[in-house]
Amino acid sequence: MPELAAFRASARALWREVRSDARPVIAPYPERGPAPSWKWDRPVDLLVGRALAGERPAMLARAEAIAEAAEALCPLDDADLDARCAALRVRLMRHGLSDPALIDQCFALIREVTGRMLGMRHFPVQLMGGLVMVEGGLAEMATGEGKTITALLPAITGAMAGMPVHVFTVNDYLAERDAAKLRPVYERFGLSLGVVIHGQETPERRAAYRADVVYGTNKEITFDYLRDQTALGPKRGAARRVMRDLFGDRAREPLIMRGLYFAVVDEADSIFIDEARTPLILSAEMPANDDGLYLAALELVRQLEEGRHYRIREADRAVELTERGHRVVAELSEGLPQTRWRIRQAREQIASQAIAALRLYQRDRDYIVAEDKVQIVDESTGRVMADRSWEGGLHQLIEAKEEVELSGTRNTMARITYQRFFRRYLRLSGMSGTVKETAPELWADYGLKVTVVPRNRPNLRRDRGHQLHADAASKWAAVAEAVRTVREEEGQRPILVGTRSVGDSEAVAAALDRVGIACRILNARQDAEEAEIVAAAGRIGAVTVATNMAGRGTDIELSKEAHAAGGLHVILTAFHETPRIDRQLEGRAGRQGDPGSTQAITAIDDELYALFAPRAARALKASAKAWPIEGRPANLLRRWAQGAAERRHAASRRQTELSEERLQKTMAFSGTA
Ligand SMILES: Nc1ncnc2c1ncn2[C@@H]1O[C@H](COP(=O)(O)OP(=O)(O)OP(=O)(O)O)[C@@H](O)[C@H]1O
């Protein structure tokens, strides 16, 4: 019976929509509840994540068909194209994202509009990446494959269907750059675009979140969510929000965001994995109360001896006082005026933090001192984390060590881990060049399935291997020599030298200066000139020395002559704790089928080997007959150390999540959440 068939079809469509949250939800602040629906047992989830990751040829074929259909839009005049966009918006509003044919039509229109506004039409592989994300998945697209314009596909489609969309970037520079570049495309579709960056006041942020699509960093958007949670107070149920929306809560300010609907996360592994080891804590600064505690603590611990009074676990950034250490701290603090010294736990905590401040946190690696302030540098992005501070008195101890003005201590108002925050989006999606190896964890923690998208053109980048030197001095000399050789023997190709810290970037610049080569430095101290340094880095003869600021997301465009000379040459001067960050840096060369090359020059006393493979490093050093060491032994040491570091970080992420779970339970029990 046709009626029955129609009924079945509509019931199926309805079910699909309900399951996939495909329609706009008419709720005041949509977000998912804290319990994820895909969860089994963690080991099972990890296996499922691994099994689900892979290629999807049928999806690539669908993307190719979209690209072909989009060619038919080329002859349309502008008015016709705009009319089609407007008509499609009405249909998407009505049907949401449940109809694949509407999504395909929308993608074809986005491709054509992007072609007219930016001069780039999406390749089929980019359309495939967009399809993965509209479905709520994670697309692995290699570095340089054009993820910036790929983000337009899910963001515009979701926004046309009436969903507020948040596009996450790893730093403010990229949020502003991408928004400025893509704004004409969004506007052509009649969509508004907001940007949230550090330093904006609340009314400005609120206005940005009213836009159809918002670009911002994970930190800014998560903190805005925490601010809303604090404003909602302990009873943050849906009923309270409806009441607040209907009748207003005149005593309070309106909320900042409109809820968590659709997230498109660029550089997803950086946000979901690398940054997920520490929870985000929203805190209020208390007035500075300098009673001399921090200086006294530094003074006291300077009298202690490592091994006898305390032990340091550098890889975990942890300090442990020994039995003797406990006794000596008690003795030395007797008679000190501050009350903290009277309480055993408080006394030992401040002493351990003071040791950490002196021994574990280094200037120009973990932080810089600028404008008379201690500013934390995020190693994975190479950038200053403005207005961030370490907890538990550590920040003030470092300020006391650096002899700058002490800031106030901070009181926690709300906290959340990225694992918990992103799970609250009704639809979560993302992309990155380096996600496949983290697929099990991404499924287990975020319910995200990884799809590998093929490259548009074959990769022409060549790797020239890895040299391991006996010490830092010979490493810097070898780096300078490698730069000189490439410049002189390979037609002045542009060179990018990547370093792990501000201090190292300056050491390379000094080594280059000794051989008479001028360079530009891009690090947390030079961030104001970033756009200009990046723009010049792909020209013939350019030598750029950079921290990870020139890593993820940085697009170094080659000049014609640089392309002809062989493209960008990237030199890594130290490996990171995860090979994904190394691959991101290498990925600045050989983009979109461009020529390019990479090489690594490291030293056996590099932090990675010293912390994560100390015995193997010592054994290799003892048995070395000649330096530098190349080939298999050098690569084995690297793999060994990075494997140990990755295991340690995975355990630490799990630990963060478990402690957060425990904390949430305790707070619920005591009635504060
Ligand atoms: N469809 C296209 N047609 C022509 N050029 C394109 C196209 N898509 C991207 N590009 C160009 O490719 C380069 C790389 O793009 P983009 O920076 O977005 O890559 P990415 O995948 O985000 O890289 P990363 O992984 O390093 O962040 C840019 O110069 C961009 O203009």
TrEMBL record:
It comes from Sphingopyxis granuli. The gene is secA. Its EC number is 7.4.2.8. Belongs to the SecA family. Residues 128-304 form the Helicase ATP-binding domain. Monomer and homodimer. Part of the essential Sec protein translocation apparatus which comprises SecA, SecYEG and auxiliary proteins SecDF-YajC and YidC. The lineage of its organism: Bacteria, Pseudomonadati, Pseudomonadota, Alphaproteobacteria, Sphingomonadales. Keywords: ATP-binding, Cell inner membrane, Cell membrane, Cytoplasm, Membrane, Nucleotide-binding, Protein transport, Translocase, Translocation, Transport. Residues 41-633 form the SecA family profile domain. It is a peripheral membrane protein. The keyword Translocase applies. This is Protein translocase subunit SecA.
